Amino acid sequence: MDRVQQRRNRIVQWLREQESCHVGDLSEVLGVSTVTIRGDLDFLEQSGCISRSYGKAVLNPQFAFELEFREKEKIRSEAKQLIGRAAAQLVNDGDALIIDSGSTVGFVPRYIEPHKRCTLMTNALNLANELVGDVRFELMMTGGTLRADSYSLFGPIAEQAVRLHHFDTLFIGADGIDLKAGVTTTNEQDAQLNRAMIKAADKVVLLADSSKFGRRGFCVICPLPQVHTLITDSGISDEYRRALTLSGVNVIVADE
């Protein structure tokens, strides 16, 4: 991560803790000029992350912010399990699967039927640990650099491992889904790996509970038409359901 991205991440973290701040305060805390801070705030505002008025910056409540993995696990757990169960029904015996890291997609393998046998690659340490010794899966890991807060691997080594294989289905999550921005996440390295996963898979299955709709992360994973199937819960609005269907996305509502 370069210095500019690190500084912008620190600005976002500061705003999450302080709720609002002035340009001069950020300049002093981060040790850069007010011109540099204004440039950062311009970028964050254009990304939809913040809004500005009267010299202050505040967070946009509709923007998707990254949470530590154990925090994510606790949020809407019942809906995520139903989504994971519905996704498992799409798996055929003999499939080669790639499963992204994330609190929703991690439920998919739990519900794959006992008689099925699959090859499964993942970048999620917690998922690999859970599946060690599970006879349903020939388990592979991407390798790569560890992100401790998400229990996931990323980087050039992970991307190369993905590119060297072909998969029937990718199960992927997202931090935000927006009709204009598409499928987004909060971390550029994750987005790069996700894009490699999409290229390596015949089908892209996006798992997202309805709280993700109308939110945007910093980094675009893909436009909506690249998603073959979206699995969500009944909180999805008619607007999103209709727009996704028109984009060619098969929408499955797990709790209907």
What labels describe this entry?
single chain; 256 residues; alpha/beta; 7-stranded parallel beta sheet; 3-stranded antiparallel beta sheet; 9 helices; 15 strands; 25% strand; globular
Report on the architecture of this protein.
The chain is globular and about 60 Å long. The protein starts with a helix and ends with a strand. The protein has a 7-stranded parallel beta sheet with strand order 6-5-4-9-12-14-15, sandwiched between helices. A 3-stranded antiparallel beta sheet has the order 1-3-2. A 3-stranded antiparallel beta sheet has the order 10-11-13. The relative contact order is 0.12. The model is unreliable at 67-71 (pLDDT under 50). The chain is an alpha/beta fold. The longest helix is centred in the first third of the chain and has 16 residues, at 3-18. It is built from 9 helices and 15 strands. A hairpin with a 2-residue loop joins strand 2 and strand 3.
Order of helices and strands: HEHHEEHHEEHEEEHEEEHEEEHE
DSSP helical segment count: 9
Separation of the first and last Cα atoms: 42 Å
Radius of gyration, whole Å: 19 Å
- Indicate the low-confidence ranges by residue numbers: 67-71
| Beta-strand residue percentage | 15-25%
Strand order, sheet with most strands: 6-5-4-9-12-14-15
Q: Tell me the total number of β-strands.
A: 15
Largest sheet: 7 strands, parallel
